[in-house]
Amino acid sequence: MNILLAFKAEPDSGMLAEKDWLAATQDTCGPDTALLRSSPGADEQAAAALLLAERRAGCEMVLTALNIGDERSLHWLRYFSALGFDKTVLLENGADLRFAPAFIAGQIADWHYRHGADLIITGCQSSEGQNGQTPFLLAEMLGWPCFSQVTRFALEAPFISVDQRMESGLRRCRVRLPAVIAVRQCGEVALPVPGMRQRLAAAKAEIIRQPVDIVVPQGRNCLALTRPEQRRRAKIIDGATAQEKARILWRDYLRQRCAP
């Protein structure tokens, strides 16, 4: 069974200092994240952990990790190789892909047409664009069913069982492959940590690098940044004495919350 994990390496904006955010308010370029360390989103890490758990359970599979981006993704491709992924692929493109789900879905579909996959797994949405459209567009291009908000799945070739976290509760489906699923991290699984021997072996592992010729139209600029006002909600109790303040506190706040 050929399984493709498509992930996105995102810069950690939480590492930016306050002065960087303040400087970004002076123009329309937004904060510079070029030097920040990138990492897969929580959804993609959960998907990789679930795949590796299925392999440990005895399911035979060929795992491929694919990323569209620049050289900052090489570290994580080697990381997935150290965890046991059989192939790692970097589709090189230096354009701003935060708001280009159709372009990303098209590149994943092209890879599938050339190499084949029985199951394609993505995250539900990235922390940057947060559009959540890529898996649905990909499934539409391929003519496959798509399942989002997946918290767990089990492979039983040629079927897959998925658990979806819906507003009405948990839904369990069993469908025939091929399919596209979008995993949602719910804090139940964590990405394993490879050992030193696996890391050293992965440092020499081959990473398939292919340039992407199509250029995504630019022109998406930051219009404005506004710093939210962080103020605690509080009410000052006025009273002549401490006893009077205590009575006001009881009458206006505590009594309503203690009532059965």
TrEMBL record:
- Stretches assigned to the Electron transfer flavoprotein alpha/beta-subunit N-terminal domain: 28-218
Q: Kindly give the Pfam families that the UniProt entry links to this protein.
A: ETF
**What keywords tag this UniProt record?**
Electron transport, Transport
Query: Which family would the database say this protein is a member of?
Result: Belongs to the ETF beta-subunit/FixA family.
Q: What is this protein called?
A: Electron transfer flavoprotein subunit beta/FixA family protein
